[in-house]
Design a protein that fits this description.
Layout: H1 5-11, H2 14-19, H3 28-32, E1 34-35, E2 37-40, H4 46-55, E3 60-64, E4 80-81, H5 86-90, H6 97-108, H7 114-133, E5 157-158, H8 163-180, E6 184-188, E7 190-197, E8 203-210, E9 215-220, E10 223-225, H9 234-241, H10 257-264, E11 269-270, E12 282-283, E13 292-294, E14 308-310, H11 325-333, E15 339-345, H12 346-351, H13 361-369, E16 375-378, H14 381-388, H15 392-408, E17 427-433, E18 442-443, E19 450-452, E20 458-464, H16 471-475, H17 485-499
Parallel strand pairs: 1-9, 2-3, 2-10, 3-6, 10-20
Antiparallel strand pairs: 4-5, 7-8, 8-9, 11-18, 12-13, 14-15, 15-17, 16-17, 19-20
Length: 503
């Protein structure tokens, strides 16, 4: 059941309607006019770049392949992080960009791009303060040190009840004013097909195509590629990550076209080796991609594990109650297909808190009765292994070893929470698939966010910001809370405010 672009737009309902500007075509006069800045992508980075460039008096043209502004903010969780904000100070929290950077180095184990990450944290606080001035509201009791990811050393993690929509709502009025002033023009349902290059190699404009297939040339002194990532391009996703795109939850227009544009001008893509997944979700079907059916609660601080987790060899690969989110995710990274099975017995069903988030235990049992593809139950361990496609002897040996640890209090992986043996039939297994809905690899840029060639030289007049830089640049091979949305806004703001030269 793959989500089509049309059904995605329809599902947004009032949100999409509020974000939509009337699509229009390119006239002859527009094609001749040379703008100061042409922004490809009206999303997390493109909107602030346009707002601040217009404030400097620049003439800006924004194009987007979608029928509405907002990009991934329309479905993003909208997690943000920033150190040294006014909100922190008001709550008595002393924090600095240096401490934020040090945490990123610690959590990512030094795999972030230090230049790009430093630029992000240095400009995160003023960016967040600006959003607050525009009406952005965080949840009560925020900031906190983390949610769902490895925690920071200090509370610098922000979230809104309206998730990514709250960020869009905060930026929309300023963007609308810029459009009303005439400084910013918008072309929706227009896709950038190619960059136009001068003989010197400098970018001088783009070739665009509207929804009817009509192509037009647009001239500009500077071009910002803010098209987002490639996470909805299944072929490109598999090429760069090495794994199929299992989960269909990415923004439909994240097709990787911005990467191709950058490469056509001499830029290159980096960071694919930093690919990482979450600890796994339960998929709805065998289709690739498919939707998410549910996920287990893998957070020991909320629910201590009663089950064991095994890989395709039916071997345990992580201490199930390890408190580190990153440790669990890194352990899964080394497993075949980044896939695992949660295995338990009837004792767990009868005694443990519900395993699956937002499901009761009865809901889970109904799933086994409904013969869903990744829910397996059998009267013996060997029969369970056959049903789940796991090696019989290995699964039996794994459970025997675990039960020995329960009996002696000496688990071979060092697990502390050992509530009961797993020896009471029937036995159960639920397959979980590690997934990612963002783009790890991205185009290479320098400290001014100019797209660079492999020799380090900048492509004149060409910039990039947002997910097109890849999560690997600001998160490394880890999930660092708030380090995708915040850098995208900060970089867009920084480009429009000072980095792009209009004269």
């Amino acid at each position: 059941m793959r989500t089509s672009k049309r059904r995605f737009v329809q599902s947004l309902g009032a949100v999409a309607a509020a974000a939509t500007l009337a699509p229009r075509t390119v006239g002859a006069r527009e094609a001749r006019r040379r703008r100061d800045l042409l922004v490809i992508g009206a999303g997390t980075a493109g909107l602030p770049a346009s707002i601040f460039a217009a404030q400097r008096g620049a003439s800006v043209l924004v194009i987007d392949a979608a029928a509405q502004i907002g990009g991934t903010l329309l479905l993003s969780s909208g997690q943000m992080s920033a150190a040294g904000t006014r909100l922190q100070r008001a709550k008595g929290i002393s924090d600095t960009p240096q401490e934020h950077f040090d945490d990123l180095m610690r959590i990512s184990r030094g795999t972030i791009d230090p230049v790009i990450a430093r630029l992000a944290v240095d400009h995160a606080a003023p960016t967040f303060d600006w959003l607050m001035e525009q009406g952005y509201q965080v949840l009560p009791d925020y900031p906190v040190d983390g949610v769902a990811h490895e925690p920071y050393s200090k509370p610098r993690y922000y979230w809104s009840a309206k998730r990514g929509i709250a960020v869009l709502d905060a930026m929309r009025p300023a963007f609308s004013r810029a459009v009303a002033s005439g400084r910013v023009e918008v072309l929706l349902e227009h896709r950038a097909v190619a960059l136009q290059l001068a003989p010197s190699g400098a970018v001088s404009g783009i070739l665009v195509e509207d929804s009817a297939g009509k192509r037009s040339e647009l001239r500009a002194r500077n071009v910002l590629i803010a098209t987002g990532g490639y996470a909805s391009n299944a072929a490109l996703f598999e090429k760069l990550s090495g794994l199929p795109k299992f989960l269909d939850r990415s923004y439909p227009w994240a097709q990787g076209e911005g990467l191709a544009l950058a490469e056509s001008a001499g830029g290159y893509v980096r960071g694919a080796e930093k690919y990482l997944t979450n600890f796994g979700v339960i998929l709805a079907s065998d289709d690739v991609p498919t939707s998410q059916l549910a996920r287990a609660d893998f957070y020991p601080e909320r629910r201590q594990p009663w089950e064991v987790y095994v890989n395709s060899h039916a071997q345990r690969f992580v201490r199930e109650d390890v408190p580190s989110v990153d440790a669990r995710e890194q352990a899964l990274r080394f497993q075949p297909m980044m896939r695992h099975w949660v295995v338990f017995d009837q004792s767990v069903v009868e005694q443990a808190p519900p395993l699956i988030e937002d499901w009761t235990t009865q809901d889970m049992l109904d799933a086994f009765d409904g013969e869903l593809p990744f829910f397996h139950r059998a009267g013996s361990v060997e029969a369970l292994a056959r049903a789940a496609g796991l090696p019989e002897r290995s699964l039996a040996a794994t459970l025997d070893a675990y039960n020995y640890g329960v009996h002696t209090g000496n688990d071979f992986l060092g697990r502390k929470h050992l509530p009961c043996k797993l020896d009471k039939p029937p036995f159960y297994a639920i397959r979980h698939q590690g997934t990612s809905i963002t783009s790890t690899a991205g185009v290479a840029v320098n400290e001014r966010l100019q797209i660079v060639r492999r020799d380090g030289s900048a492509v004149p007049n060409l910039y990039a910001a947002g997910e097109i830089l890849g999560s690997g640049a600001t998160q490394g091979q880890a999930f660092c809370g708030g380090m995708m949305v915040t850098p995208a806004i900060a970089f867009g703001r920084l480009l429009g405010q000072q980095l792009i030269r209009f004269t």
